[in-house]
Amino acid sequence: MVQAILLFVAGLILICLGGDRLVDAAVAIAKKLGIPQIVVGATIVSLGTTLPEILVSTTAAFDGSAAIAAGNAFGSIICNTALIAGITQTIRPAKKVETSALGWRSAFFFIVLIAMNIYGFVFGVYNRPVGIVLLLLFVVYAYLNIKRSASEGDAGEEEENADEISVPKQLLILVVCAALLYVGANLLVDNGIIIAESLGVPERVIAVTFIALGTSLPELVTSVVSLIKGYGNVGLGNIIGANLLNMLLVIGIPAAVAGIPLEKSTVSVDMPLALLVMAVLILPILIRKKSSRVQGIVLLATYAAYCISSFI
């Protein structure tokens, strides 16, 4: 148990180090290429911070732990939105959000999640055809990001010192930081499971709480660091992008490989709650072009109630 706790702490340190430099590198690339911060957050940063979820769910599917594969994905969406976005919006609500960049990504998210919820409710499984469709939707999402990035400007972003930035160097830093996040998250998840199992916690509860929180720590660190450094749109874009990737890749890859049977609680609780918390976060922002501290408090209260009910 002592070794597990020490490795757990080591993983946390790696995640903190990786998340700090990941934000700096992403913002540098955005300045150099003239790409809005929210776009970089929703693409490069979110892909890097979602790698732990992708690898954990794919490994779990190969090992036959379907509850972990599905629970990790939707638990991470809930954690990203209710806990991480809840924290950042409570500390510092977004005052100016570029809704042209946020709007279509949000619509994409809601359409995919609603379709997945209906399909899961009717069939109780995500089989290989569903996985293939999700992977094709990821290709569509990536294409739309590339095509629309030029028109998604953010007038509030600064471009000073852009000529001094080396894109290859910053990309290398991104790769290294993503690796640190992956290693750190793995240490957290593996040892978190050991600690949880020693306390007699069920597999699904481990998936939607310990594993979801562990694999979402890169998003948490990235969002908090973005907030501290004044790049709030990077954090918000990271949340939206990571949530989309949780559905398209974290579910899509293992479903395409082996298929994922769904537990009733995943379809009846986790997926509707993921839809609800995203609506609480996104809809007011799209309407008012800014968020409020009340949204953050509501999201945090929702996450607390979700964790308590999962354990009960």
Structural class call reads mainly alpha
The CATH architecture: Up-down Bundle
Overall CATH class? Mainly Alpha
Compute the separation of the termini in Å: 24 Å
The gyration radius over C-alpha positions equals 18 Å
According to CATH, what is the topology?
Answer: A middle domain of Talin 1
Tell the overall outline.
globular
Task: Explain how this protein is built.
With 312 residues, this protein is mainly alpha-helical. The chain has a single domain, classed as Up-down Bundle (A middle domain of Talin 1), CATH 1.20.1420. Helices cover 83% and strands 1% of the residues. The chain has ten helices and two strands, in the order ααααβααααβαα. Strands 1-2 form a two-stranded antiparallel ribbon. Residues 154-160 have low confidence and may be disordered.
Question: How would the blueprint of this fold be written?
Answer:
Layout: H1 2-33, H2 37-62, H3 66-91, H4 99-123, E1 125-126, H5 128-148, H6 167-198, H7 203-228, H8 232-258, E2 260-261, H9 264-288, H10 293-311
Antiparallel strand pairs: 1-2
Brief summary:
With 312 residues, this protein is mostly helical. The chain has helices at residues 2-33, 37-62, 66-91, 99-123, 128-148, 167-198, 203-228, 232-258, 264-288, 293-311, and strands at residues 125-126, 260-261. 83% of the residues lie in helices and 1% in strands.
Q: What distinguishing features does this structure have?
A:
A middle domain of Talin 1; 312 residues; mainly alpha
